[in-house]
Amino acid sequence: MVFTFEDGHQETSEKGSCILFPPTVYQDYRGKEDFFNSFVEFQTDQVIEETYAIPCNQLFQPKNIQQINKLIQKINHESLLPQRHTEELIAAYMTNLLVLLERSFEESIPQPQHEHYQLFQAMRLKMLVNCEQQWDFSQFSRELSIGKSQFYKLYQQFFHTTPKEDLLQARFQKFFYLRSNETLTIREAAFQSGFQNINHFNRLFAKRYGCAPTKYQQEQ
């Protein structure tokens, strides 16, 4: 299958590949011929990347694909034929699934890069969880004791996106979350999500979603 990501770049997945899409993220994947895929849609109050070391929007190749497929089948079975304690059982299956995916992803990282990856993952998690703050990517490269160009190269290699795009996506996700309770105005939600200029926010929003924030939410 060929995946097209938000920044326009494409990747071809191998058989058995996995990817975790967060809410509101553009999804475009197509098979070169007939294909079969297993998937689970779920909601959680947790920040997945804070609890599990699984990056979003990144293809990876798990080794335990049979276990993963069996768990997805169990979740599907419980959803179709609910019984007593179905919700608790599905939650347990989902925890098991995410733990397996986390371990598979860590095992897929080449050993020489593993130390760098762990530092990048911790830095990235801090940035995404606190996306409303103003972050200096040059400071990140200094803290990691690497050059600026190497920082961007490794970030792209590890997470298949740029730090700027990653941060922007996190801010939009937070904006949608803040607007979901309908107590904040668009301006207030944008500022609390890290956008310092409402006009700049409106331009970025229109470029990404094809319309103004007010029109987008009216159509949802």
UniProtKB/TrEMBL annotation:
One Pfam family per UniProt: HTH_18
What is the top-level taxon of the source organism?
A: Bacteria
Q: Which Gene3D superfamilies match?
A: Homeodomain-like
Keywords assigned by UniProt? Cytoplasm, DNA-binding, Transcription, Transcription regulation
Q: Which SMART domains match?
A: HTH_ARAC (SM00342)
> Which molecular function terms from Gene Ontology are attached?
DNA-binding transcription factor activity; sequence-specific DNA binding
Under InterPro entries, the record lists: AraC_XylS_family_regulators, Homeodomain-like_sf, HTH-like, HTH_AraC
Where in this chain does the record put each HTH araC/xylS-type domain? 121-219
Record-given protein name: Transcriptional regulator, AraC family
Q: What is the organism of origin for this protein?
A: Enterococcus casseliflavus ATCC 12755
